[in-house]
Amino acid sequence: MQITQRSEYEKLVLQEIKDLPESEIQKIIKMIQFLKKEVLQHDKPEDEDYLEFWDSFGSWKDERTAEEIIKDIYETRRSSSRDISL
Predict the structure, then answer these.
(1) Suppose 64 and one of 21, 22, 68, 85 were both cysteines; which one would form an S-S bond, judging by CB atoms 3.0 to 4.6 Å apart?
(2) Mean model confidence pLDDT for the chain
(3) Cα-Cα-Cα-Cα dihedral sign, residues 26, 30, 35, 37
(4) Cα separation of 41 and 63, whole Å?
């Protein structure tokens, strides 16, 4: 059976749901909502993902220069003499 129109899909889905026990319908509704969300979420154009990725760069804010930050990192390092066994 070749389905070509949306109304045919809807009839098929409705028939499948009608064949289920009433106790299972809520689970099916939740599954449909989950799948719908997943499908629509992945329909986002790749360009949007790319731009969102690049927009995340440069969000670090600090008044110090790079040299001051590096110096601070080195000064706050601590050595440990504890034994580590794997």
Answers:
(1) 68
(2) 84
(3) positive
(4) 38
- Amino acid sitting at position 4: T
pTM above 0.70, yes or no: no
**Identity of the residue numbered 68:** E
Non-local CB neighbours of 17 within 8 Å, separated by 6+ positions: 25, 28
pLDDT at residue 49, as a whole number: 77
Residues contacting residue 62 through CB under 8 Å, at least 6 positions apart: 69
46 in a domain, yes or no? yes
Of 29, 7, 30, the C-alpha closest to 17 is 29
φ and ψ at residue 83, rounded to 5 degrees? -80, 135
DSSP conformation letters of 5-32: SHHHHHHHHHHHHHTS-HHHHHHHHHHH
66 located within any domain: no
Tokens linked to 30: 């939740």
Task: Count up the domains in the chain and report the number.
Answer: 1
